[in-house]
Amino acid sequence: MLLGDSVTYGVKGTSDRNSGGYRPELWQKFVADALPVKFVGSRTSGPDTLGDKTHEGHPGWTMKEITASIDDWLNTAQPDLILLMIGTNDTRKSSLRTMIENFSTLIDKITACCPYSQLLVASIPPIHPAAKPAIRSLRAMYFNAAIPSIVASKVAQDKKIHFVDMRGLSIQDLTASLSLDLDIGLHPNAQGYHKIANFWHDAVLKVISDRQTNLAFLRPQQ
């Protein structure tokens, strides 16, 4: 389950809202790996190059809005892997403290509903300093800095959660780095989505590899 906001949906800017974002390249990478992957969710969108257009990306949604609907989506889809990137829209009005609290609540709800699923939690892309209000850029940066500690606290509670560090994304990976007329300072460009696909792909392969290693370790010796 690819879960999040307009970055998961695949918005690049005012003139490109249906690119699929990172999803087409991630799908193609899984196909090349010969992994039997199926995307799940309540929404479908994206270009013809995307073999599976299903997702749970909701443009404009905040963490609280995702939290309010997540049980229904998870109970219907029953995902093995959940790829969560959320928080960009919260930077508009929410304080950092509120963002952290809402993020923790969402994680708890996901892991309570799907305790055997693997939850991969990513940092969010940077926000252009010229975006309005200007505080959004700082909130995104400080929120990203807090995510590893939040994830570590959940791991200590034996939750199946992993941090996917995407802080390698820069302002140059935003559509707005070309012109704020093309975007409002929030969305990745093609280069940014390419990086996100690589981050997700590598993280999923690691989780799968670690799970196979653990199963082999637990399997009785002949």
TrEMBL record:
Coiled coil: none
Molecular-function GO term, any one: hydrolase activity
Annotated SGNH hydrolase-type esterase domain residues: 2-194
Signal peptide bounds: none
Keywords, in A-Z order: Hydrolase
PANTHER family: SGNH HYDROLASE-TYPE ESTERASE DOMAIN-CONTAINING PROTEIN (PTHR30383:SF5), THIOESTERASE 1/PROTEASE 1/LYSOPHOSPHOLIPASE L1 (PTHR30383)
Name recorded for this polypeptide: SGNH hydrolase
